[in-house]
Design brief:
Layout: H1 9-25, H2 29-45, H3 50-66, H4 70-86, H5 91-107, H6 111-127, H7 132-147, H8 152-168, H9 173-189, H10 193-224, H11 232-242, H12 253-260, H13 266-285, E1 298-302, H14 304-311, E2 328-331, H15 343-348, E3 361-367, H16 373-379, E4 386-390, E5 395-396, H17 410-427, E6 467-468, E7 470-471, E8 473-477, E9 483-485, H18 492-512, H19 518-529, E10 535-537, E11 545-551, E12 561-564, E13 571-575, E14 582-587, H20 598-604, E15 609-612
Parallel strand pairs: 5-6, 8-10, 14-15
Antiparallel strand pairs: 1-4, 2-3, 2-13, 3-11, 4-14, 7-11, 8-9, 12-13
Helix pairs in contact: 1-2, 1-3, 2-3, 3-4, 3-5, 4-5, 5-6, 5-7, 6-7, 7-8, 7-9, 8-9, 9-10, 9-11, 10-11, 13-18, 13-19
Length: about 625
């Protein structure tokens, strides 16, 4: 049609639009290049057409993202440059040209080439000063340029340009983050104390304002990069860590390591790898938001007397009746499995932990087997108890790697706090740091897993105050041929990934075992502690267990820990923050007179279902 009516602009434009749509569906580079050539001919035929130029621009932009060679990208950039010169006022063409220049810069290795690209991008940014998209592209380029610069003056010039962009677009998280990384690099090149103090001041201010975004980027760094220390992001991470700004995040534990070992040392790199793998294992075992299509029940077997405690009401005429009891996480030393916490040592070839050693971990167990003969016998008070099925909204699911937390011990928090104050005083001539908030002076004794979440404080009904569930992995072979049992809580791919991670962890631990220094071995032990209670023997696979885990210091000042004396032996426990959310009560086969309990259930929450197990039980 277009060949028959070659002079028709409307037909040419319709054909161009069709070619552009076709390019979206194409996956091969050759196909897209052929489509781009057809559009190029149309654009040359109608050189004054704004619309055809835009179509051609878009297909060139798509093409540039698929090209891998320097010459190919350079040719595409030249074509876009001609279009931009032809239509200098069109923002979309300028933006496409800028993005292609950025892609080109990734392939450029010579500083002279990068400087030429810098001139073109700077010219575009000055022409479209109000365009955030072009400003962000220029900021990304300046960051790339800085990684190729070695002289202090060059870095300072680049930093000034990025500073101008950051001040113009003060709400931009991305530009602030890039500027912070560049400053961390600049700090390493600076020799004058006053310059270093000024750089430190700016980075702290930016972190205070954009901490959530930076922490998410650090999470991405640890989740996706196997060589963390070699990343440019790590420069900023290490700087912020050493300044004590991460002491209330899951990365606080790393501060001890970075203070003790050199940044490029094999010891630190191996420790960071171990830390990273442990984090990934925790995330892999976590129950994720994406698994919600899988219908699960969260059953907790217990005695009938425990249910009565959950249903107790305060003597208060003004208060409405409701289920206000809170469930408990008991100390890990009370678990029924004699190998509890030891399996992980067996599969990783570690020294046995002393069974008399008190644990600071507290946990609560659940199962998706909510009416099961074996479970009634073992956990349901010999079938005279109940199975409490909790509602979905009583828990949090992992939405991303950012949700993975790490315990913090009180004594380290206090030590970190004092070190921060000392460093702050030394750096500022014993003046108070203007970037230190009041909240940084407080020390939490316990939180979900003993650490604060990455994000800012959340209200009491938020996700942050609900507990995350971990699926227990069951170990089949503990020696050289490590194998995990696939239960209905896991996909085959998840088990394979866990086995891969455990084997990688074992390799790193074997390397670490050659370093006999006590501090180093203690650091490794701290990492393993995070996953100690997430693996059990295959003998217990029938339980299909999920767990809530919390870390709490066994310290006399810890007001979160309570003592249960009902069994005659004082047992330590922690209450969950929110009241229990009961969805269903299943009375055991031998539960006496369940009809005495159901009226109270109806009064307190009419939405609670209840039934009695019909399993035959002697």
């Amino acid at each position: 049609m277009q060949q028959k009516f070659q002079e028709s602009h409307d037909i040419a434009e319709a054909f161009a639009a069709t070619l552009l749509l076709l390019s979206f569906e194409q996956t091969g580079l050759k196909e897209r290049m052929a489509t781009a050539e057809k559009l190029e001919k149309l654009q040359q035929q109608f050189q004054e057409s704004h619309d055809l130029a835009l179509h051609y621009t878009r297909i060139l932009a798509i093409l540039s993202t698929k090209q891998t060679g320097l010459k190919e990208r350079m040719a595409t950039a030249e074509k876009l440059e001609k279009l931009q010169q032809k239509f200098p006022e069109v923002h979309d063409i300028a933006e496409a040209f800028a993005k292609t220049l950025l892609l080109l810069s990734i392939k450029q290795t010579e500083l002279e080439e990068l400087e030429t690209t810098a001139e073109k991008l700077e010219k575009l940014q000055q022409q479209f000063q109000e365009s955030y998209d072009i400003a962000e592209v220029f900021a990304r380029f300046l960051f790339i340029l800085s990684t190729n610069q070695t002289e202090l003056e060059e870095l300072e010039t680049t930093a000034e340009k990025l500073q101008d962009l950051q001040q113009q677009f003060q709400e931009s998280e991305e530009i602030a983050f890039l500027y912070s990384i560049l400053l961390a690099n600049l700090f390493n090149h600076q020799t004058e104390l006053d310059e270093r103090l000024q750089t430190t001041k700016i980075i702290k201010k930016l972190y205070e304002e954009f901490s959530n975004f930076m922490l998410q980027n650090f999470d991405d760094l640890f989740f996706s990069n196997d060589n963390v220390c070699d990343s440019t992001k790590y420069m900023l991470f290490n700087f912020i860590l050493r300044e004590g700004l991460l002491k209330k995040t899951k990365y606080a534990i790393l501060q001890k390591w970075t203070d003790r070992y050199k940044e490029d040392s094999s010891e630190l790199k191996n420790l960071l790898s171990i830390y990273q793998i442990v984090q990934k294992i925790k995330y892999q075992l976590g129950l994720k938001d994406e698994d919600k299509n899988q219908v699960l029940k969260f059953g907790h077997y217990t005695k009938g007397s425990t249910l009565q405690i959950m249903l107790e009401q305060e003597e208060n005429d003004k208060k409405d009746f409701s289920v206000s009891g809170k469930t408990r996480l008991y100390n890990a030393n009370y678990m029924n499995d004699p190998e509890e916490g030891i399996v992980i040592e067996q599969i990783l070839g570690l020294d046995r932990r002393d069974v008399l050693e008190p644990s600071s971990w507290f946990l609560m167990s659940f199962t998706n087997k909510t009416d099961d003969l074996t479970m009634w016998s073992q956990y349901g008070d010999d079938a005279k108890g109940v199975c409490l099925v909790l509602r979905e909204d009583d828990f949090s699911r992992f939405t991303s790697f950012n949700d993975v937390s790490w315990r913090q011990e009180k004594n380290f928090l206090e030590f970190s706090d004092k070190m921060y104050l000392l460093k702050s005083e030394l750096n500022s001539g014993f003046e108070k740091s203007i970037f230190r908030s009041k909240s940084e002076n407080s020390v939490d004794t316990v939180n979900d897993e003993g650490t604060e979440p990455n994000s800012v404080e959340k209200d009491s009904d938020s996700k942050g105050n609900r507990d995350y569930l971990y699926r227990i992995a069951y170990v089949k072979h503990k020696e050289e041929n490590l194998k995990l049992e696939q239960t209905e809580l896991f996909e085959k791919s998840e088990i394979e990934e866990l086995e891969k991670l455990l084997n990688s962890l074992k390799e790193k631990l074997d390397i670490g075992s050659k370093i006999t220094e006590e501090n180093y071995q203690n650091a490794i032990a701290e990492c393993i502690e995070e996953i100690r209670y997430l693996f059990k023997s295959v003998d217990y696979k029938y339980e299909n267990e999920l767990r809530i885990l919390r870390y709490a210091n066994l310290d006399p000042s810890n007001k979160e820990i309570k003592i249960d004396k009902t069994s005659g032996v004082g047992k330590l426990y922690i209450e969950r923050k929110n009241s229990i959310q009961i969805g269903e009560v299943i009375f055991g086969p031998k539960f006496p007179n369940p009809e005495y309990v159901t009226p109270l259930l109806k009064l307190l929450d009419e939405n609670i279902d209840y039934t009695k197990s019909t399993i035959k039980f002697r």
